[in-house]
Write a structure and sequence with these properties.
By secondary structure, the chain is of the alpha/beta class. The protein has 26 helices and 20 strands. Helix 1 runs parallel beside helix 2, helix 18 crosses helix 19 and helix 18 packs parallel to helix 26. Its EC number is 5.6.2.3.
Length: 613
């Protein structure tokens, strides 16, 4: 892998590397990155991997290779501005709805903010980073009281605390470093949206690359609600001459139009909603123009203007009704404001190809890049051209240290009925209980919905009371994972957040249960729009979107089982379509090469032996 990465960096040819769990793939790209002549950016999807790189892998590598790397081995972490505490907001106060600086919020949150401010001042005095990830335990609401977005920031030149600023110090350190570790979202904002966030670089290594298109989509998704327009108008009113009143009126029109619009994707946009978006856009533009040209170091004006500019940008995008975007109405959750509009890019492959891959060399790596046994599906989603169009990239599979055929069994419950829309059926619940009983706990259950996970947990608790059965929502995920690891006679059931990133090697996890093939919901506005676009382009929308989505998740979920060379176990998929449907072969080819069976007796005996009974 390291040799292939070096070749890619020197030749400028893009590279996809599938590297299974346990291959040490971070060293496979970190060594070439630190030896490369120009700056290299490493982008990850999860904080866990970012911490692993910065706090363990890179320091260990730099120390071990100090005689070779000398003083050139410099590295830094770079995150979005809102991930760093803002000293101006901490010391001067937070603007209220009218833009007046308020020292502390009312109620119990005030005490939490005081404690957070004390930690931030200690960070400033001690030369700390002021990063959210290092802060004491807190809620999103508390963090908003001590941080700002890039639009709310006064800027280092105008801010009285600019020389101490945590975010500016992080950027300065990055500008002096050979290696920068960041995240997919910041990479997308810098490269694709054109907002300069990262110092110039030559090569980008994208780890957890199977997540990239979803993270880029997320970074390019905007939301708009009437409540947000009203809040922006209140913040702007004292800094403008009446334009904020027009913005407040536009909020009323937007509320009526959004409430009247059907839930889900809007294609075409109803006329009254289109008219309301134009009203919001025009009123926001007039408001922005009415703010003082030079806000100086007035944080209230700067932040009110920043909010209004952000509102204008979103309303303008939605009003344009571009065929490159998907617009939909998201229903409000109980007791949470009104319905809101969402807009996301129909696809991100084009922008990635034009704005990232055109002038940077990219190395994509993950344990899951070959879907259906081929790199082409993922390569296309990342913006890489088909191989026949110019051979602009190479894909290699460096294998795995694990012997999946000897260490693991893939069990497909072919005898079960096809999953329905009404949750788990009795036959599936019986199968889950039988499998968990054979494994004597030791089960990670990955479910397609919270309702299914809770139903399975309730059934296992009732019928196997001697085992400990945990369900997502019973406690915070780190606490659930700790309990799961601490006692092998335990089951942990949950949804999407357990499918990726949970690392539980050893006898704790000898059975991974998957209730159904994880296709996206049929009413998902973005996925359905992408499938329709693929059909119109002459491709198979189901295979290009739904099956690809399912294959990625299945591969990630199955990957929870074997984490070391000594692990043994079963991946049980309770959906017969994996062997009966035409697309089943594509899905199976995306999984690790486990030994497969559809015989429940074989699996039950194997799990009983593994449990030591």
């Amino acid at each position: 892998m390291a040799e292939a990465v070096v070749d890619a960096m020197e030749s400028g040819r893009h590279l996809l590397v599938q590297a299974g769990t346990g291959t040490g793939k971070s060293l496979g790209y970190l060594v070439p990155a630190l030896l490369h002549k120009d700056r290299v950016v490493v982008a990850t999807a999860t904080l866990a991997l970012q911490h692993q790189l910065v706090e363990r892998d890179i320091p260990a590598l730099v120390e071990a290779a100090s005689e070779v790397l000398h003083e050139d081995a410099t590295y830094a972490v770079l995150k979005g501005r809102s991930n760093y505490a803002c000293l101006h907001r901490v010391r001067e106060g937070v603007p209220d709805d009218q833009g007046t600086l308020v020292d502390l919020p009312e109620g119990s949150i005030g005490a939490e903010v005081v404690a957070m401010r004390e930690w931030i001042e200690d960070e400033a005095k001690g030369g700390g980073t002021g990063e959210r990830d290092h802060a004491p335990r807190h809620t999103d609401r508390v963090w908003r009281q001590v941080s700002v977005s890039h639009r709310e920031c006064l800027g280092a030149a105008k801010c009285p605390y600019g020389t101490e600023c945590f975010a500016e110090r992080a950027r300065d350190k990055a500008a002096r470093s050979q290696l920068i570790v960041t995240n997919h979202s910041l990479l997308a904002i810098d490269a694709i949206e054109g907002v300069p966030m990262i110092p110039d670089y030559d090569v980008v290594v994208i780890d957890e690359a199977h997540e990239l298109t979803a993270r880029v989509t997320q970074a390019a998704t905007d939301e708009l609600s009437a409540n947000e327009v009203e809040r922006t108008a209140r913040r702007a009113v004292k800094h403008t001459d009446g334009e904020a009143d027009d913005l407040a009126d536009a909020a009323d029109a937007l509320r009526l139009a959004v409430d009247a619009a059907p839930s889900g994707r809007l294609d075409p946009i109803p006329q009254d909603l289109s008219d309301a978006l134009i009203l919001v856009r025009d009123a926001a533009r007039a408001c922005v123009s009415a703010f003082p040209k030079d806000t100086g170091d007035d944080a209230g004006i700067t932040q009110a203007k920043g909010w209004t500019q952000e509102l204008f940008k979103t309303a303008e995008r939605m009003a344009a009704a571009s065929d490159r975007d998907v617009l939909w109405v998201a229903q409000a959750e109980a007791k949470r404001g009104g319905n809101r509009l969402c807009v996301a890019p129909l696809e991100v492959a084009g922008p990635m190809r034009d704005k990232l891959l055109a002038d940077k060399t990219a190395v994509f790596t993950s344990a899951t890049l070959k879907l259906g046994g081929d790199f082409g599906v993922v390569a296309g989603s990342l913006g890489l051209s088909p191989k026949a169009e110019g051979e602009s990239w190479e894909g290699i599979d460096v294998g795995s240290p694990f012997d999946y055929g000897q260490q693991s069994i893939l069990y497909v419950a072919k005898h079960l009925p096809q999953p329905g829309r009404d949750g788990l059926q009795k036959a599936q619940l019986d199968e889950i209980v039988d499998l968990v009983d054979a494994a004597d706990g030791r089960t990670l259950g990955l479910f397609s919905s919270r309702r299914a996970a809770e139903a399975a947990a309730e059934e296992v608790r009732e019928r196997l009371p001697h085992l400990t059965t945990l369900c997502q929502g019973d406690a915070q995920l780190p606490e659930l994972a700790r309990q799961f690891v601490g006692d092998p006679h335990t089951c942990l059931f949950g949804t999407l957040s357990l499918w990726q990133g949970l690392d539980v090697p050893g006898e704790t996890c000898q059975l991974v249960l998957i209730d159904r093939v994880p296709f996206p919901r049929p009413d998902d506005p973005l996925m359905s729009a992408r499938a329709l676009a693929a059909d119109k382009a002459g491709a198979n929308g189901f295979m290009a979107v739904s099956a690809t989505h399912a294959a990625l998740l299945l591969a990630q979920g199955a990957g929870r089982l074997i984490r070391t060379t000594t692990d043994r176990g079963v991946v049980a998929i309770l959906d017969p379509r994996l062997v009966t449907a035409r697309y089943g072969g594509f899905l199976r080819a995306s999984l690790p090469p486990m030994w497969m069976t559809t015989d429940p007796d074989v699996v039950s005996k194997a799990l009983t032996r593994l449990s030591g009974r």
